[in-house]
Design goal:
The protein is of the alpha+beta class. It has four helices and seven strands; from the N terminus they run E-H-H-E-E-E-H-E-H-E-E. Strand 6 and strand 7 form a beta hairpin. The radius of gyration is 14 Å and the shape is globular. Bound molecules: coenzyme A.
């Protein structure tokens, strides 16, 4: 487990494109990595990048922006390890929040496993298919 660097971005983009219907652009990752207050972590397995988490601090809240694991490495605890390290590093008593597609049951189950609770819906938040976002908080 380590901080992500710019040299990881080709591997990040490769995982991102295999993980999301509307993947983030390279520019979005560069912007997040450039924020001094953010926490961007990568998990290595067998010498390669297996997954990453991107978290930004907005005033008094951590916003979990992105988490993805390579399809080759899923269901083996990689995301769990990333989230545990994130919660350690962001241990300043600030709450975490995130948005997740209402259809992404696997991710919602994972977040609930880590104590996140639903706090409403943002209607038609995702422009690609008009899907609602579930808003979740971990205090
Ligand atoms: C969602 C995703 C990141 C999960 O990654 P993963 O490495 O397969 O997840 P893990 O195997 O580490 O499981 C995560 C944790 O949640 C738990 N968990 C997973 N699904 C669960 C469920 N339905 N109910 C309860 N707990 C669940 C696991 O037990 C594990 O916890 P543990 O480490 O304490 O055992 C991965 O499937 C992915 O990249 N999906 C595509 C991108 C995506 O949807 N990202 C989230 C967008 S908001």
């Amino acid at each position: 487990m380590r901080r992500l660097g710019y040299s990881d971005l080709p591997n990040v983009i490769s995982i991102e494109r295999r993980s999301f219907p509307t993947p983030w652009s390279l520019a979005m990752f560069v912007l997040e990595l450039s924020k001094p207050s953010g926490i961007c972590l990568g998990a290595m397995r067998g010498g390669e990048l297996a997954g990453y988490v991107i978290c930004s601090r907005y005033d008094q809240v951590w916003h979990l922006m992105n988490v993805a694991v390579s399809p080759d490495h899923r269901t083996r605890g990689v995301a769990g390890a990333l989230l545990r390290r994130l919660f350690e590093e962001g241990r300043s008593q600030l709450p975490f929040t995130l948005e997740v597609r209402v259809s992404n049951h696997r991710a919602i189950g994972m977040y609930e496993h880590f104590g996140f609770r639903s706090a409403g819906v943002r209607p038609r938040y995702y422009h690609d298919n008009g899907e609602d976002a579930l808003i979740m908080w971990l205090d």
